[in-house]
Amino acid sequence: MKADDVILFANVAELGSFKLAAEKYDLAYSVVSKRIRRLEDDLNVQLLHRTTRKLSLTEAGVSLLPTAKQMALLTQDAVQSVSTIRETMKGHLQVSVPTISGDLLLAECIADFCHQHPGLNIDVTLSNRFVDLIDEGFDLAIRTGYLEDSSLIARHLIDSQWIVCASPTYLERCGQPSSPDALVDHNCLHYTYQSTGAADWEFFSDDKMDNTVSQPVYKGQCKEKRIVRVSGNFSTNNATALRKAALAGYGIVYVPRCLVYHDLLNSGLIDIFPSLVAKRLGIYAIYPFTRHPSNKVKMLIEHVRDKYQSMSHYFL
Q1: Which residue of 20, 102, 207, 269 shows the fewest CB atoms closer than 10 Å?
Q2: Co-location of 97 and 167 in the same domain
Q3: Whether 230 contacts 181, CB under 8 Å
Q4: Residues 134 and 193 occupy one common structural domain
Q5: Final residue before a domain boundary, out of 62, 81, 100
Q6: How far apart (Å, rounded) are the C-alpha atoms in residues 140 and 192?
Q7: Of 34, 60, 35, which is closest to residue 47 (Cα–Cα)?
Q8: Residues 35, 51 within the same domain
Q9: Would you place residue 216 in the very low, low, confident or very high pLDDT band (cuts 50, 70, 90)?
């Protein structure tokens, strides 16, 4: 049984609504529902009667509620007891950031934040690995992709659009593919560090395309999407190495737009399908739900978000 689930139950019971509890903790409704079900499974009892109109406590829920409220109050007291420390912009923060955004803007952005607050020391780790924030002692992580761990809170910062591009040298030598399906006849260099298969490139559907090569069309939120499976003779988990290989004319790459923004401007790389690439991932600031966010963490998140937004043309 997780103490945080018990405290969440106390708030659900007090507010009489999963929706209101979700809004209070800035969680998705589904996360609140899932955590209450997990608590019931841990205790092997039903705590709430759920109907379309209202929630009501079972006998077990009534029995647990006083203890749950006491746990919530103790947590609140603990937070208040260190509120003075929380509100000061001093101390140390451990932050994990992805390599592409770290190189592009986050290293300078976080250094600027430290300059504004001389009493604060921030240790920044550049890594694409999804660190365990609690076990590894991180106060904050900036991550691209999907949040699966319900014990973490995510603040959306910006979306990151992916593109398919190649150098003019490669396109002159091998020809420019007329459609995504034509990529199967090209040397497509693989970025192996991504949430989906490195050889599975995602596009919006086009009725004019040859559907015999790619996998079946599936439904997206707005448009139909499809996967084209490509192949190539070079792969790497390092985005910088992939960019250099593309600039040298060795093949076509599928990468975040921000990685090659300046190369597109100076025509070092050419965006081949500017309106057809479907992959767009959210970038999030993530911190543990079990740890009450300090003022310095909240201010750092806002500082980072403002920086991303000021450079949105790199990402979208």
Answers
A1: 207
A2: no
A3: no
A4: no
A5: 81
A6: 25
A7: 60
A8: yes
A9: very low
Residue 306: CB atoms within 10 A of its CB come to 12
Rounded Cα–Cα distance for residues 190 and 174 (Å): 18
123 and 169 both lie in a single domain = no
Q: 62: helix, coil or strand?
A: helix
Q: Is the pLDDT of residue 225 over 50?
A: yes
70 pLDDT tier (thresholds 50, 70, 90): confident
Q: Give how many domains the chain has, as a whole number.
A: 3
Note the helical H segments in the chain: 3-15, 18-25, 29-43, 59-81, 83-87, 99-101, 107-116, 133-136, 168-174, 239-247, 261-265, 295-310, 312-315
Kindly state whether residues 198 and 60 are assigned to the same domain: no
pLDDT the model gives residue 55: 84
pLDDT confidence of residue 288: 80
- Residue 211 Rama label (left phi>0; alpha psi -120 to 50; beta): alpha
Tell me the whole-structure pTM to 2 decimals.
Answer: 0.66
Radius of gyration, alpha carbons of the chain: 24
Q: Do 210 and 269 sit in the same domain of this protein?
A: yes
Using an 8 Å Cβ cutoff, are 142 and 95 in contact? yes
| CATH code, domain with 232 | 3.40.190.10
What is the mean pLDDT of the segment spanning 208-217? 38
* Tokens 């996967």, residue located: 227
What is the reported pLDDT for 198? 86
User: Smallest Cα–Cα separation from 6: which of 70, 58, 55, 49?
Assistant: 70
| Shared domain check, 218 and 149 | no
Residue 89 DSSP label: S
- Domain extent, residue 233, equals 161-280
